[in-house]
Specification:
The complex is a heterodimer of chains A (86) and B (200). Chain A is mostly helical and 86 residues long. Chain A starts with 9 loop residues before the first helix and ends in a 6-residue tail after the last helix. Chain B has 200 residues and is mainly alpha-helical. Chain B folds into two domains: 118 residues, RNA polymerase sigma factor, region 2, helix turn helix motif (Rna Polymerase Sigma Factor, Chain: A, Orthogonal Bundle); 70 residues, Orthogonal Bundle (Arc Repressor Mutant, subunit A). Chain B contains nine helices and no strands. The chains are: A mainly alpha (86), B mainly alpha (200). The interface between A and B is large, with 42 and 55 residues. Bound molecules: zinc ion. The site of zinc ion (ZN) has 6 residues of chain A, from helix 1. Zinc ion (ZN) binds next to helix 1 of chain A.
Chain lengths: 86, 200
């Protein structure tokens, strides 16, 4: 942790918020945003909200899966194409 | 030429092991592109047929899901025979700020409580289905299917900056839909004028 680095301002922290929660920043930037979020009462709830929102979005996976009849059709067409396994 | 071409049966076993387990993922992505079950069914079949026939081009150890998503998107474009030139605004920093402001408003009017509800997923699935392209497929790839910006950029054939821009706009639109849903469901205080957030 480099303590000589100046603290990010709120605007820069929020501009990088999505990239931060997505883990898409460089290691130093991830750390800089994290330091800001840990210390800033304004920005911290935004990050928390963003994470909850993305977790809820990820949950929608369970709402939709490949229907059994489609699965069967895929397997049948693969067998027609020469696939010998199941 | 590769001098260690495995016998056909080994290839089939590899395909079954590395590609077939992602049928749910491919189905969700296909559905995000076609937005209806019948076309998604056809697209999943087409994707797996193409994948099986070109399995020799798959690099062992690389990301099979990313590879399947790319085949799926190409098959979709081929089926539509339209390679649209989509112009995206790439001001994704502004998109992030706008999304953050929207989040601030959701917290103020109480619609953020919705995020803790167990039955939120169906509402979000519906909101996702209603999301316009190209935002929908991008959000599905990154937020539902866990693809990195880089992977989504490869699958969708657009620059990473475009992925970010689409993603952030898509998320913001989803949050707006959730706010409306929260108001309808009586979670949020209706008629609360959206104030300019002063904490950003
Ligand atoms: Zn701050």
């Amino acid at each position: 942790m480099s303590d000589d680095m100046p603290m990010l301002d709120c605007r820069s922290a929020m501009q990088q918020l999505w990239d931060y929660v997505d883990g898409e920043l460089t290691a130093e930037r991830m750390q800089a945003v994290e330091r800001h979020l840990d210390a800033c009462a304004n920005c911290h709830p935004h990050a928390e909200f963003a994470e909850r929102f993305l977790a809820a979005l990820h949950q929608t996976r369970e709402d939709r899966s490949c229907p059994q009849d489609v699965r069967a059709k895929v397997m049948a067409s693969l067998r027609d194409a020469g696939m010998k396994v199941t | 030429m590769n001098d260690s071409v495995p016998p056909a049966d080994a290839r089939d076993v590899e395909f079954a092991r590395d590609a077939l387990p992602y049928m749910d993922d491919v189905y969700r992505f296909a559905y995000s592109l076609t937005r209806n079950a019948a076309d998604a069914d056809d697209l999943v079949q087409e994707t797996y047929l193409r994948a099986f026939r070109s399995w020799h081009t798959f690099q062992p150890g690389s990301d099979a899901r990313r590879w399947l998503f790319t085949i799926c998107r190409n098959a979709f474009l081929r089926s539509r025979e339209k390679l649209r030139h989509e112009v995206d605004v790439e001001d994704s920093d502004m998109e992030t700020l706008a999304a953050v402001m929207n989040q601030g408003e959701m917290r103020k009017d109480g619609s953020d409580q919705l995020l803790s509800r167990v039955d939120l997923a169906p509402a979000l699935t519906k909101a996702l289905d209603e999301l316009a392209e190209p935002f929908r497929s991008t959000v599905i790839l990154v937020d539902v299917e866990d693809q990195s910006y880089d992977a989504a950029s490869e699958v969708l054939g657009v620059p990473v900056g475009t992925v970010r821009s689409r993603l952030f706009r898509g998320r913001r639109q989803l949050q707006e839909k959730l706010r409306a849903y929260a108001r309808d469901a009586g979670f949020a205080s209706a008629g609360n004028p959206a104030q300019e957030p002063n904490d950003v």
